[in-house]
Amino acid sequence: MGLKLHYHNHYHSPRGGALGALLLLLLPIFLPSLFSPLGHASPSMLSGLNVMMKSNFQEWNVPKSRHQRLLKSAVQRQTSERELSDLWTPLANQSLKPCAESSIAPSLPEKSEGFIQLFLDGGLNQQRMGICDAVAVAKILNATLVIPYLEVNPVWRDSSSFMDIFDVDHFINALKDDISIVKELPSDFSWSTREYYATAIRATRVKTAPVHASANWYLENVLPVVQSYGIAAIAPFSHRLTFDNLPMDIQRLRCKVNFQALVFVPHIRALGDALISRLRNPSGKSGAVATNYLQEMPDVKDKQGAGKFVVLHLRFDKDMAAHSACDFGGGKAEKLALAKYRQVIWQGRVLNSQFTDEELRSQGRCPLTPEEIGLLLAALGFDNSTRLYLASHKVYGGEARISNLRRLFPLMEDKKSLASSEERAQIKGKASLLAAVDYYVSMHSDIFVSASPGNMHNALVGHRTYENLKTIRPSMSLLGQLFLNKSISWSDFQQSVVEGHQNRQGQIRLRKPKQSIYTYPAPDCMCQA
């Protein structure tokens, strides 16, 4: 598992740059554990680097509206009752339905070949996909799966374990007829730990699994290790199982894990249910919390969208903004800050850097800003009575960046506005648990929309497709071209948006070769209705 140091570097002088380079060269000498085979930077270490590398200048000017004419019209928009009715109407039943159970009756092998141990990196949704693949590999090898170890991600810095996030007893019980699973290794194998593999090359560690490896690769390269030593530890493991040319029962098993076996722990579900109740019953009649946690608008009761809500997954963090190489209206200071960030994290090797902002936007390669996603929703017909739940980590630019989105949708809520600090105590500062709450609420929303592609977007698009739930997928190329037209009228913009998104609201798309089964569950995990 490679180490990724995510820190900010805002040195102003060549001397500062030289000192930073010297620091990086000395790190492996003074802190060798960071660079071991399974090494990763601890949260405290990364925090220290952040403090050392930061400077005091403001990273951005207050972002100005990039689409003032459209914004002015959008604020004054009116949506008819008929349009609202169409907007909130659930998807009609489609030709395919969920079908995660294999046509072959599940069965356990008479004897397990041994144990499979996995170390999963990434954020919540990358780890979720890794868990599904882990179950599939255990099935392919007739091996017993050890509950996977979740690495501490150097960006999100959350040490939550599998059992902190997912209901492990439900997981084991749901798959009891498919594979054998243990919560921890028996005493005979207690030596097989993360620390053991981090200190030296070990015969039981498999670290050469290619991306999207075939079933045969595991049978030829991993099974002999399991048979020889009784255990194989695979790391890294993210994206290490192919999506193609696998038996149907293995594909169905992956979907069974994803859509049935992986259930969040009770306190995540309880908090999620409370947030959902407060979004659907803003008067506070659900009795869960005092009504001062909710913004209210007196004329919402009789609207078509009463009792309904949209989840907006807004990923607009510094990593994404910098990697896109797009201009987001924060002025020269922001451009400089993002350019320096690209230099530190990727040594300037960002493909988009060779294109102009206009070229990137015309190709749909720029993440939608909060203002732009707000204009998209307004053009589709959502009005200022819409309850909008913001599923988001930290937005680069803070409240100033989302002020125009809030202006368009004054009933915008998030975890902090809907729940007290006491209710959020168990998830505070834990990125994976915060993401789990957002995932849960997203799966129970009437409509879901994501501002940009990513693991959360992919996971929820796939899960909501499986459940036939309305999910709006923004057409990035269309919107990029529309936003470049600074003279476009609101009526022309709205017409283009509506027409361009008629078939992007949850209609089933069949998976193509090499595409992820977790984003495109049909046809592998769905069958004729």
TrEMBL record:
Which GO molecular-function terms appear in the entry?
Answer: glycosyltransferase activity
The record's annotation in Pfam families points to: O-FucT
InterPro entries in UniProt:
FucosylTrfase_pln, GDP-Fuc_O-FucTrfase, GT106_glycosyltransferase
Give the domain of life: Eukaryota
GO annotation terms (biological process): fucose metabolic process
Bilayer topology reads:
Single-pass membrane protein
Transmembrane intervals: none
Pathway stated in the Swiss-Prot or TrEMBL entry: Glycan metabolism
Amino-acid biosynthesis found in the keyword field: no
> What family is this protein classified in?
Belongs to the glycosyltransferase GT106 family.
Protein name (record) = O-fucosyltransferase family protein
Q: Which organism is it from?
A: Prunus avium (Cherry)
